[in-house]
Each structure stands twice: as C-alpha cells, then as structure tokens.
C-alpha cells in the first residue's frame, strides 16, 4: 500500500498527516477497484486480462495519440499503412477466369496470337449466320473472318435470324467468370442477347481480378 501511494505521489510535495494520506488512499482504492472490475469481467467472459490491458486502462497518456497510432515512451508513433492484396499475375487471372466459366458450363479457348484467334473464330462460326459488333469494336481484327455478318444497323429481322453473336468485351471478371458489355455505337446489345450462341473475344488487357477493379 505504501509503495502504491508513494508512486502516485512522486514528484509532488511531501506532506505528512491526514491531508497527505487521503489522496494516497483514494489512489489505492481506485487501482484496487479497477483491478477487481477486470477480474469480474474476466470471470464473466472467460478471458483473462493481460497486464498490458490493465495498465493501459489505468495509465494516463502523456500525449494525444492519433487514430491508428501507438504510444511508446510518451510519443505517438504512426502505424505503418496496411498493404492490400497484390494483384494476381495475368496467367493466374486467365486460369481463374477459365475455371469459373467452366463451372458455369461455358467453353473457353486460349490462343497465342491474333492469327490463331481469327482462325479459332472462323472455325467456331463456320457456316452460321452472324450478328456482330462493328469492326472497330472487335479486337485482333476478328472482323476479317466475319464476311456477311449482320450489324446493329442491319434490319431487325436479319438480326433476329442470326445463329451466333460475336462481340468483344469491356471487362472480364475472373472472380465470377463474368463479362462486362457496354452497349453503344457499333456495339449493339442484341449481338449478345438475340442469337442462341454468344462468342466473346476477350483480350488479356480486359481481365480484372474482381468487380472492384
């Protein structure tokens, strides 16, 4: 008890008698009450308070800490900023995107050059009638193999009769296997909605890890 009282009064005037003992007793009671409150709380929650926790509640900070700062020796030290998750490598994005599409029953092909992309598109389209985005909206000069394809400006009955729709995309979300298609000039929405088959040409630059990107 004497040690607690002497510590709390360190640096102050040494006054004897009842006047000096009163604040010492109050300090002791305050400390004792705080510790007992922590013990009772621990009994209710089954969590034992640490010495650091108890000391933090009883200590008076010598400086006002900023949000996210820690105190050490009376000085406020800013915590280092949290680093967000690193973006997966392009190959990882491709693999995840294909895995999500496979789970949805969608067939995918990965080609190594623009020539291979055009050859693949030509093989898939075959003799089917096509409704496609305009040439300037399609990557890899795919329009070169879409001879006679209907466009957004074509008559409605011709668009409705198309057997396959060929589009590019504005983004491809690897996390969900989703495509982002924004309609606009030369990018008719009907190309992805009307035909029973939709062929989307996705470049590596279109890939995003999550919708937040």
Q: Uncertain runs with pLDDT below 50, 5 residues or more?
A: 1-10, 12-22, 24-28, 47-73
Report on the biggest sheet. 3 strands, parallel
Strand order of the largest sheet: 3-4-7
| Helix and strand run | HHHEEHHEHEEEHEE
Question: What portion of residues belong to β-strands?
Answer: 5-15%
Number of strands: 8
- For this structure, the CATH topology of the largest domain is Rossmann fold
Helix amount: 25-40%
Termini gap: 61 Å
CATH architectural name of the largest domain: 3-Layer(aba) Sandwich
Q: Can you tell me the CATH class of the largest domain?
A: Alpha Beta
User: Which whole number gives the mean pLDDT?
Assistant: 77
Features:
single chain, 213 residues, alpha/beta, Rossmann fold, 2 domains, three-stranded parallel beta sheet, three-stranded mixed beta sheet, 7 helices, 8 strands, 37% helix, disordered N terminus
Characterise the protein shown here.
By secondary structure, the protein is of the alpha/beta class. It folds into two domains: 2-62, no CATH class; 90-208, 3-Layer(aba) Sandwich (Rossmann fold). Helix content is 37%, strand content 13%. The protein contains seven helices and eight strands. It has a three-stranded parallel β-sheet with strand order 3-4-7. A three-stranded mixed β-sheet has the order 6-5-8, covered by helices on one side. The longest helix has 28 residues, at 18-45. It is elongated.
């Amino acid at each position: 008890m004497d040690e607690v009282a002497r510590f709390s009064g360190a640096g102050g005037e040494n006054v004897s008698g009842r006047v000096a003992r009163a604040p010492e007793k109050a300090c002791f009671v305050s400390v004792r009450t705080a510790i007992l409150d922590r013990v009772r709380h621990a009994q209710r929650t089954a969590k034992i308070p640490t010495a650091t926790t108890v000391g933090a509640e009883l200590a008076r900070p010598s400086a006002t800490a900023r949000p996210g700062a820690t105190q050490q020796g009376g000085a406020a030290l800013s915590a280092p900023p949290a680093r967000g998750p690193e973006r997966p490598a392009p190959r990882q994005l491709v693999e995840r995107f294909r895995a999500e599409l496979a789970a949805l029953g969608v067939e995918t092909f990965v080609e190594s050059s623009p020539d291979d992309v055009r050859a693949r598109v030509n093989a898939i389209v075959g003799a089917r009638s096509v409704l496609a985005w305009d040439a300037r909206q399609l990557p890899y000069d795919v329009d070169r193999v879409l001879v006679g394809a209907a466009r957004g400006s074509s008559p409605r009955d011709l668009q409705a009769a198309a057997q396959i729709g060929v589009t590019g995309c504005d983004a491809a979300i690897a996390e969900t296997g989703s495509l982002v298609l924004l309609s606009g000039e030369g990018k008719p929405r009907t190309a992805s909605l009307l035909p029973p088959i939709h062929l989307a040409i996705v470049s590596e630059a279109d890939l995003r890890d999550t919708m937040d990107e």
